[in-house]
Design brief:
This protein has about 325 residues and is an alpha/beta fold. The chain is built from eight helices and 15 strands. A hairpin with a 6-residue loop joins strand 14 and strand 15. The longest helix has 20 residues. Its EC number is 1.14.-.-.
Length: about 325
């Protein structure tokens, strides 16, 4: 980032709270975001707010002042990072049934979640052999990095987590097995629901990483870290590493999956067109269409305009 360029601040936030009429909150929130040139996605639901936004720091501050006036949001926690360029193409405020979709309507994080564990205390917890460590993210996220010894449920969506746990509970927590569960996710929001779910299933000792992987990577030095790899994020940075520095992965615009540097050397990788993961699932005609779209995106970038087809897939509530 040049010294003359204004930094782009990225703010990731969520808050479980009661919104009686989420739709009534949308117009003003959308207005303050657009008035300040803020881009990203914010989700509103009866259970609260979730999202990631980016802009100049003063613009982000204006939006956060507004969000803190919403019911129950005065103490909302926000995780900040920086980007060299705007990681979003537009601003979206969306109404949802859930701010993170688990599909378990009886689970309410406001009535009880697991024990929060500070990043500086996380290593000791997950190193304990009496702790079973579960990565609650989706398989394509886990593929870019995870904690040492963590179990990967290999889910395609967070909606699959309850079924996975019920099917594997005995193997994880049966007689003679670990007596406590520690879970983690990108920013902490999925663990609010997954720990509440485990407690509803009768698991007593449930812990989760406060602030998620992002807070851990921000707070714990690489020399002391138990993290391997990079952390997938839901914007055009694709991944971040320790200190929340930009990562090394690209995004395949055909299948929307992260592409490792080693996979970029494959003859099946073509920027904007294909990657080894999706090459066999796409036709030549489809790749020709992706190639045309990619050329249009590059031309739009050179002209300093937007190409609407380049929008990052909105998967952050999964």
């Amino acid at each position: 980032m040049s010294e003359a360029a204004a930094p782009i601040q990225v703010a990731a936030l969520y808050k479980f709270t009661r919104f009686d009429e989420p739709a009534a909150l949308k117009p003003a929130l959308e207005s303050v975001c657009r008035a300040n040139g803020v881009k990203g996605t914010l989700l509103l639901a009866p259970e609260g707010i979730n999202g990631t936004i980016a802009a100049a720091p003063e613009a982000i501050a204006s939006v956060l002042r507004h969000i803190r006036t919403l019911p129950g949001c005065a103490d909302i926690e926000v995780k900040f990072s920086e980007a060299e360029a705007m990681p979003f193409l537009r601003m979206k405020v969306r109404l949802k049934r859930e701010i993170v979709t688990m599909g378990q309507p009886d689970i309410d994080p406001l009535t009880g979640v697991g024990h929060y564990v500070a990043p500086e205390d996380w290593n000791a917890l997950i190193a304990d052999p009496d702790t079973v460590v579960i990565d609650t993210r989706n398989d394509y996220e886990v593929a870019t990095g995870t904690f040492k010894g963590a179990i990967n449920p290999e889910t395609e969506s967070f909606r699959d987590f309850p079924e996975w746990f019920r099917a594997n509970r005995e193997a994880l927590l049966g007689e003679g097995k670990a007596r406590r569960v520690a879970m983690f996710c990108t920013g902490g929001i999925r663990c609010e629901k997954s720990t509440a779910f485990l407690k509803s299933e009768g698991v007593e000792e449930v812990y989760h990483l406060k602030g998620g992987i992002l807070k851990y990577l921000e707070s714990v030095s690489e020399a002391e870290s138990s993290w391997n790899g990079e952390c997938f994020v839901f914007d055009q940075r694709v991944t971040v590493g320790h200190g929340l520095a930009p990562g090394s992965y690209a995004l395949c615009h055909a299948c929307r999956l992260p592409v490792a540097p080693s996979d970029m050397q494959s003859p099946r990788y073509e920027e904007g067109v294909s990657c080894p993961a999706c090459f066999d699932t796409r036709t030549d005609e489809q790749r020709a269409g992706y190639r045309t779209r990619h050329r249009q995106e590059m031309l739009a970038r050179e002209r300093g305009t937007k190409h609407l087809g380049a929008e990052f897939a909105d998967q952050s509530d999964d």
